[in-house]
């Protein structure tokens, strides 16, 4: 039987469209109490179902449907909202290379090719290929934006710049700086770190990141000065919940475009310190460059940073003068503390006398 509208109160608070088209049962809420709007949706949905019956899923599947399949398959939802707003219910079969390129320019008009690739082309191609695997879209080869793989020049901070920022920062900002510079966290890892995943013993410390970009949990050594900063934060905020909090004591919320309260905080600190603006990603480059300057050990850095390959390590380590290791030692950032021999020695000495220590681990 064709689709029929059922008034509010029959199957829920809104008009509901139910019926069978081409042997396929259908039931969907219109999310409206207006009869004329419900009737318009009935006509639209019935036409779509009839079209699919005649032409098949491959020719009629929509972008919105592909998004649902992609998320159900465990896909990353970070950049999908903008794409859904742009493509909506358009048929996948009707979306071509020019449409994809136009979407990137429309959604991020001032962005570089690498941003278009990361936030538009990569998620779109991933969900489109999943639709192809489901026989819901015709196979296609997609081109990435020209220059998308060109590596941008990313700066790193000198020890003196970091110290100037720490002096200029409010208490919660000092904690964030000490943690990101001292542990090399990705932005999402740092703001998501909980006290239950931190272990402080004397002036030694460890943090465990259980949810990482590469899905591989890892342990991060903490410098004595970072441990001191975390203990100071514990005295003010307690040792429950998130380690990093905003100025009001709440959690930092990340935005899809990398903005949000943390970026605003770091930009304000940089301005007050007379340093060029930076974000958590630049602090990760800083940490990697500093650690390598001290250890000269790429395998150590690969494991500590949670990277899967040495080429990825090379992206984060920047050319630095031979004197950098000495500067880092003077400021308390000497990563040679974490060489395997010294680390075992330091922990064995520290754990033999744990008076006044704080231990918190899941």
Short description:
This protein has 16 helices and 7 strands. The protein has helices at 35-55, 57-60, 63-72, 80-87, 97-107, 113-133, 159-168, 171-183, 187-192, 224-237, 261-273, 280-295, 298-305, 310-316, 324-331, 340-351, and strands at residues 4-6, 16-21, 24-29, 198-201, 204-209, 218-222, 358-359. The radius of gyration is 26 Å and the shape is elongated.
Describe this structure in words.
By secondary structure, the protein is of the alpha+beta class. It has helices spanning 35-55, 57-60, 63-72, 80-87, 97-107, 113-133, 159-168, 171-183, 187-192, 224-237, 261-273, 280-295, 298-305, 310-316, 324-331, 340-351, and strands at 4-6, 16-21, 24-29, 198-201, 204-209, 218-222, 358-359. The chain contains 16 helices and 7 strands. Strands 6-5-4-7 form a 4-stranded antiparallel beta sheet, with helices on both faces. It has a 3-stranded antiparallel beta sheet with strand order 1-2-3, with helices on one face. The longest helix has 21 residues, at 35-55. The termini are far apart. Residues 341-348 and 350-362 have low confidence and may be disordered.
List the defining traits of the structure above:
362 residues, alpha+beta, hpI Integrase, Chain A, 3 domains, three-stranded antiparallel beta sheet, 16 helices
